[in-house]
Amino acid sequence: MTVNLGSAYWLGLLVSVVLPVLVGLVTTRVTHAGVKAVLLLALSTVNGFVVEYAGPHGDDYSVQTAAVLAGVSFAIGVLTHFGLLKPTGISGKAQDTLVTAGRHS
After folding, report:
1. Contacts for 46-51 with beta carbons within 8 Å, 24 or more apart?
2. Are residues 94 and 24 in contact, defined by beta-carbon separation less than 8 angstroms?
3. How far apart are CA 39 and CA 59, in angstroms?
4. What's the DSSP call for residue 29?
């Protein structure tokens, strides 16, 4: 069995690693964790369906494959957040960058 992943799949994996930082950029520290999780799930779902659409495959578009890719993207995002970004403080710095609670422009 030969595994051949196209560039769309590798790009999707890279996006999955970056998604928790993106969620941190658009939320604040006081944003409920459930809201952050739903936002990460929504972005992961979009990522999975876009990767399946852009991916090199001979068959037609597969919703089942897109759903699996969305699940993998969400799992990678959660694991990246708790395993790499949160312990190193990157998540906190991302949340302090753009949006702050109580500050109105």
Report:
1. 47/12, 47/15, 47/16, 47/19, 47/73, 48/12, 48/72, 48/73, 50/12, 51/8, 51/9, 51/11, 51/12
2. yes
3. 31
4. T
Estimate to the nearest angstrom the gap between the alpha carbon of 71 and the chain centroid.
10
Question: Coil, helix or strand for 102?
Answer: coil
Q: Tokens in use for 101?
A: 């609670």
Along the 105 residues of the chain, how does pLDDT read in single tens digits?
665 667 888 888 999 999 998 888 888 878 888 998 999 999 999 999 999 888 777 778 888 888 999 999 999 999 998 888 888 888 777 777 766 555 555
* Side chain identity, residue 30: V
